Amino acid sequence: MTRIAVLTPDPADSSYAGQWPQVLERLAGALAEAGITVEPTPWTDHIADASRLLDYPLVLPVIVWGYHRDHGRWMQACETWTKAGVRMLNPAEVIGWNSDKSYLGRLAEKGVAIPDTVWVEGVTQADVDAAFDRFGTDTVVVKPRVSGGAWKTLRLSRGEAMVDPPQGPAMIQPYLPTIETEGETSLLFFGGKLSHVVNKRPVSGEFRIQVQFGGQYVALPEPPAEALALAQQTLAAIDEDLLYARIDMAPAPNGGWRLMEAELIEPDFYLGSAPEGGKRFAEAVKARL
What we know:
Blueprint: E1 2-8, H1 20-32, E2 36-42, E3 59-60, H2 71-84, H3 92-97, H4 103-109, E4 118-120, H5 125-135, E5 139-144, E6 154-157, E7 170-174, H6 178-181, E8 184-190, E9 193-201, E10 216-220, H7 225-238, E11 244-251, E12 257-263, H8 276-288
Parallel strand pairs: 1-2, 1-3
Antiparallel strand pairs: 4-7, 5-6, 5-7, 8-9, 8-11, 9-10, 11-12
């Protein structure tokens, strides 16, 4: 059996304790069937010294939950792993820049369709009030640029005051009501090939589609053609050596699709909804080994 490392959360971070062990179990099970043994290790144990990670032929940073609340040390860790030459996929450089959603702006400059976005260094009520008129909408979403699992994400109506706004760099976007009616669709790619597609919808009255908010996930037999085209365009614009990618998108109210996120760090592959994807991921890992 080949041993590889999977980076996991800081043991002191209990915020994801109910989910990441299950994610790890699914991944480890799929990899074991391909003759690959997973050894979990917290990413926070390797911030300044990557020497122990060099013992592995491959390191997967696929469960590094918590980086968004410890971003300074996260970026330090990515630099450490890059300089040390850790055999990591996705590459440490990639998971560094992918942790700040400003990458969406760079993809938009390359022609990738994203929701209209205002980028601010520190969001104020005046910024939000101006965004309603700028977007011609009565509902906006405010997100930290460094976030995960809808952390500190707000949905605000015109005239509504922000409560507990995100600190630091943020983004303001028009709310896409199609999230409630058609959901967000994720396309999972392993080794550059489409593996599976999952549609995620919020429960009634909610706008966040994550499982911790009751989100409902259903595997689709195939992706909508326009969604697949946007995902392929996104991957071409990223142009990096990727083992895995989860491309999240939603239909716009006036037609077409919009990229919500290109998750290249620690995506849930939704193997609970599409278990066959585990074998495809294991095949992609084995090919790299």
